[in-house]
Structure formats: structure tokens, C-alpha cells
Amino acid sequence: MKKLLYLLFTIISVLDIQSAFSQKKHEAINEDTSQVNKHKGFSVSGYIQTQYQFADSMGAPARFNGGDFARFSQNRFTIRRGRLKIMHTSTFSEAAFAFDINERGLQVKDVYLTLKEPWINTFSLTSGIFYVPFGYELGYSSALRESPERSRMVQTLFPMERDLGIMLTINPPEKYRVHFLKVQAGIFNGNSINQETDVFKDYCARVQISNPFPSKLVDYSIGGSYYNGGLNYVYNNDGKPLDHRYVFSMKTLDNGNLKGFDLDSSMSFKDTAAFHEGKIGGTRINRIYYGADAQISFNFPFGKTTLRGEYITGTQASPIYTLGAGIKYQSFYNWNSSSYTGYMMGVSWPIYDSPQPVNPAAVLPTAKLYDVFIRKFRGVGFYLVQDIWKTGLQVIFKYDFYDPNTKVKGKEVDFNIYQRDSTGNLIHDTEGNLVADPNTATFLSPADVKFTTYGFGINYNYKNFMVMVYYDLVKNEITNLSPYQGDISKGQMPNPGFRKDQKDNILTIRLQYKF
User: How much is the pTM?
Assistant: First the structure.
């Protein structure tokens, strides 16, 4: 509480300074300007987003629409974002602090400093907590974005959007021929805004070309991004593992008829010799992302038309709790294997949590070890935004999908391996249901389900104020993953499964004010 009061006092003081500048600017000429210059360069900005949401069902899984609904809730009021940013800018440097204030508390968003070289005004160096330079939508401000949230693939791959590290930016001013080129390259912890937990650093780079041939009628840009991250095992000082943890990758199981996860002997160590021979990926399990994006806007007389598209593919390494006694943990695995990002990262998207999260979860880094599942993924995000003359109205259509495991689809996503008779035919029980093998499993789970989202919205902008009415139509692929009852006492919430489309469509009505 003391820290919060101190922060608010600081903010009010800065606002008072800004007010004094604007109200008494004409008096500065006749006064001692040393006090004025001492505070020159400060700025305060921010925005508030309040919203009402209505879901298709009680307890709707809305993790990518501002957080899951509480178990017995179908509608809610929230402060989605209450953003406040304080900056100080000088000739060759700038520093920024940004916070999010809402009913869930106070959260740090940005804390960084930037140094700018003074000779050709092309190079800058940024250090601290800031947006990871990957793709277009990730770094596109939530105050400007035409939809309530970023696409599912971006939220999955980059939870909390930011990371802690250092970045070099090359962006020549307009007087140079290559002014259309922007290059960003950074080194990061790879744990979002949490503390570092391993010996590896993640590398990210983005190249963007904007309007190399300027036109009054068209604005356009294209970009390419690359992310190289690593996860690692933990060892005792003598080189032995703290415990046996393994790496699983997609294989063909069950006599070539079924796909699923199996032990990757080339990546999982059986003894210390494997460690010394580098057969565990040099103790590194790679997370590699490739991205391409393009944007174009046409300035028509009836209003600006904007098209934006982004594609990301690569390899994702996801942690999961130990296999333990194998089939004993079948139901646990079936519904708790959905931590999509990072190994010992401290950032995850749990299927359930205790208490139930109302926002993408940021949990503390942990010393626990996990088995790791490797998946090939791909995702797409697309926007069509049409301004209606100069009325302030916008019509939006958005399409995105995220396929976390491109090796399986539809009914292939099934936790069970089914029994066969001596001739290789599947065995059915008296009611016609397939009989599962109690000793084996594919270990496929909700983490392998593909989602497609169609978004439709209307925005009205007037000066600093915006009204948004937006509907997300969410479709999951139909799989063989059965419903899960859970255990409420342990915070494990029931789930209807993915044998049909879940009722998780969301209507969002938002008011936004920027300052």
C-alpha cells in the first residue's frame, strides 16, 4: 500500500508540473527558467479501457479474451487496461515507466531506457522491459488496435508481450535513401518480465520495409522476424540430473496407425554420458519461430481501407509435469498439459489454476523440473478495417487461427491408444465403444487442439474517446478428447471436452479514453 501511495503521489506531482507548464508557459520568459528547464522533457500519457462482456456459457474459457469467466459467471464488467506511462526525453536519451492499474491490482508493463547516437541519428540502444521485436501485432499498441485483444497465436507465443533484455535499433531518418528500412535485434532472458531461470539467452530480430516508394494514396510495409530461444535441463554440480526428466516428440504409434508423443531418445538423457556427448541438444531444447507480415492502406474518398496479415510458424517446446507413474496420471495429463511456452519460465497458460485466473497468468519462476513436449506449430492473423468516410466509424473483420501441433488434426487428437485383436482390428465393448489400452497413451491433450476465431466489430472514434462493439466467434477443431470433471477442491475446473465446439463466443462492449 505504501508503494502504491508513493507511486500515486509521484504521478500527481508530475501531472502538476505538466499543468504548470501549460498554464504559465508565457510567464517563463520573465522568470528564472532554471526550475522550468530542470523538468523539461517529462510527459505523461495513458488510456483507460472499461468493458462489459457476455459469453455463450457460464464459466466460458475466455483465456484469450481477457481471461476465463468465473465458474458461475456469464457476464462481467472489467477494467481491461488502465495504462499509465511516464517518460522523460532528452536529446540523446529517453526513459519510460508504464503501469497497468485495474481491479486485479498494479502490474508493471514497461521499464526501459534508450540511448540514441547523435551523429547520424540512425542507431539506438534500448535496455530494460519492453516489447519483443517480433511481427507487427505484438508491438501494436492496445490503445490503437481495432480488436479487443491480440490474436491467439501471438498471445500464446508471447505471453505478456514483453521481455527483459537489450535491443539495437537501426532506423535512418528521411534524409537518407534507406529511410524506409528498420532493423531491430535483441537479446532477452526469454522469461517474459520474470527473472532469469537458466543459462541461455533468447535472440530475436525483425526487419521492416515501409513505403520505399511513397504515395499519397497508399501506405504499405512488409516485415520478417526470427526468434531463437532455448530451454535447458538442470544438473547437480557433479553433472548428474536432479531427477529424470525427458523430452517427447511426435511419433507414429500403434503399428503405424496412430500418432502421438513418444520418448525422444536423442534428446532425453539416460546417463551422464549423454550429457557429456551433447546428446541432449547441448542441454538446450530449441524454441524457433519464423514470422512474416504485411500491411497496406488505401486512402479512398469513402474512407481508408486497411489490410494486415501475419504468419508465424516454427518449433515450440512446452513443459509439463512429470509422467510419474505413467497411466496413473492419465486424467491429470489430459487436462493439465497446456503450458504452451517456456521451460521453467514462470509464464504459462494453464487449463485451470487455483484460484481461477481472470487474466493470462504470470506465475513465479519455479525450481521444479518438467518433462518437455516438442511441437511444430503455425498460425495466421488477418485484419480488414474500413473507415466510413470521416465519420469516425470503423467496420472490422478479423480472422486468426492457431494450430499448436501440425502433425495431428481432428479425431487424431485423442488421449487413448485403443486395443486391437490378434488380427489387428480395433476392439469394441458391448455398447460399441472402442476399448482403450490401460497401459499406454498418446499424451495428446487440449494443448494440441487447433482454434479458429472470426471477429466482427464496429468502432466509433471521437477525439480521445472510442466506443467498441465486437463479437468473437471461436471455433475449436472436433477431436476425440472427452469431457473432464475436474476436482473443484483443487481448483481443477470442469471442461466440456473437444468432441464438439465449445460455447466460448464472446461479445465485448468497450469504452476507451486516451490522454
Answer: 0.82
C-alpha cell at 138: 505484438
Find cell 526525453 and name the residue: 89
What is the domain extent for residue 69? Answer: 47-514
CA distances from 233 to 242, 265, 359 (A): 9, 15, 29
Domain containing residue 127: CATH number: 2.40.160.10
CA separation for the pair 473, 311 (Å, rounded): 20
Q: Is residue 211 part of a domain?
A: yes
Give the count of domains, the chain: 1
Beta bridge partners of 397: 384, 456
The single residue listed with the C-alpha cell 524457433 is 288
Output DSSP code: residue 411: G
- Render pLDDT for 63-118 as a digit per residue (tens, 0 to 9): 889 988 887 899 999 999 999 999 999 989 999 999 999 988 898 999 999 999 99
DSSP letter for each residue of 411-431: GG--SEEEPB-TTSPBPB-TT
- The total number of residues written for the chain in this structure: 515
Cα torsion 264, 267, 269, 275 to 10°: value is 170
The pLDDT tens digits of the residues spanning 383-417 come to 999 999 999 999 999 999 999 899 999 998 887 77
Residues in Cβ contact with 25 at an 8 Å cutoff, skipping those fewer than 6 apart: none
As given in the structure block, the three cell numbers for residue 282 are 547441448
Cα–Cα separations (whole angstroms), residue 316 to 44, 157, 368: 38, 8, 20
- Residue 384 placed within a domain: yes
Assigned domain for 210 exists = yes
Buried/exposed 219-237: b ≥16 CB within 10 Å, e otherwise: bbbebebbbbbbbbbbeee
